[in-house]
From TrEMBL:
<dbReference type="Pfam" id="PF00498">
    <property type="entry name" value="FHA"/>
</dbReference>
<dbReference type="InterPro" id="IPR008984">
    <property type="entry name" value="SMAD_FHA_dom_sf"/>
</dbReference>
<dbReference type="InterPro" id="IPR000253">
    <property type="entry name" value="FHA_dom"/>
</dbReference>
<dbReference type="InterPro" id="IPR050923">
    <property type="entry name" value="Cell_Proc_Reg/RNA_Proc"/>
</dbReference>
<protein>
    <recommendedName>
        <fullName>FHA domain-containing protein</fullName>
    </recommendedName>
</protein>
<feature type="domain" description="FHA">
    <location>
        <begin position="20"/>
        <end position="69"/>
    </location>
</feature>
């Protein structure tokens, strides 16, 4: 069974089967921060036996082994794809059953390598430290988008990294929008918010006058529903979320 990966600098990402986009937009499978790259720049079509690259009529073009791509092309091991300033190497490997099972355990959905969350988290921290808030936002949204259709527990590396990135953004920008995303994510996934996260949220609220959106209300309702359905929801968490909603969530 063939397995395709993309090597970008020091990181390697597993290509998932299906169709995945590359571009500047935060909802792309692979988000690249480069002004030469279009919002939706290129698309990989991946199956068991081949990977096809398509240029999405990008502004500055997609190049394979130095030649500009016109339409689609089948890629092979060691091919070099250039999108903007990024040079991406195609790596083809064979996985046995044990390796495949291990890869599945390390993957949450759209082809996320186990190192991906920590790499994105580090990029968010670096961007925030340099005052590049828009760049940090794009990275954080790319990470949370990885969770959109994935069924993972609250302590999964991607879940923990995504929540941490959102709270950091709230702290640095003094914007409650990012805390709203934290609560909406927990509500959608049915997660029990970890004690350290609620403490981080409370700390961020020292500089935030209000949390807009419906995330707080949604999560408070989700906790009540889970408790009614027999989920062990800590009473302290119920109280803390209710208090935050009363103080910061109501209009």
């Amino acid at each position: 069974m063939a397995q395709y990966r993309l090597k970008i600098g020091a990181r390697t990402l597993k290509l998932p089967e299906g169709t995945v986009d590359v571009g500047r937009s935060a909802d792309c499978w692979l988000t690249l921060d480069d002004d030469l790259i279009s919002r939706y720049h290129a698309r990989f079509h991946v199956s068991d036996d081949l990977v096809v690259l398509e240029d999405l009529k990008s502004r500055n073009g997609t190049f394979v082994n130095g030649e500009q791509l016109d339409g689609k092309i089948t890629l092979h091991h060691a091919d070099k794809v250039r999108i903007g300033h990024e040079v991406i190497s195609v790596v083809e490997t064979e996985l046995d059953d044990d390796e495949s099972s291990d890869a599945l355990r390390r993957t949450i959905g759209p082809g996320e390598d186990s190192k991906f969350p920590s790499l994105i988290g580090a990029l968010v921290e670096k961007s925030l430290s340099m005052g590049k808030f828009k760049e940090a936002e794009r990275y954080a949204l790319a990470l949370t988008n990885q969770l959109a259709s994935a069924k993972v527990p609250v302590d999964h590396p991607t879940a923990e990294s995504a929540v941490n990135c959102l709270v950091q953004l709230a702290e640095k920008t003094s914007s409650g929008v990012w805390l709203d995303r934290v609560f909406r994510l927990h509500a959608a996934k049915g997660w029990i918010m970890q004690a350290r996260v609620i403490k981080q949220v409370q700390g961020a609220l020292d500089r935030i006058p209000r949390v807009p959106g419906s995330g707080l209300q949604d999560y408070e309702h989700a906790l009540r529903t889970m408790a009614r359905d027999g989920v062990d929801v800590p009473a302290k968490l119920m109280t803390e979320v209710a208090e935050i909603y009363d103080a910061y969530g109501k209009n």
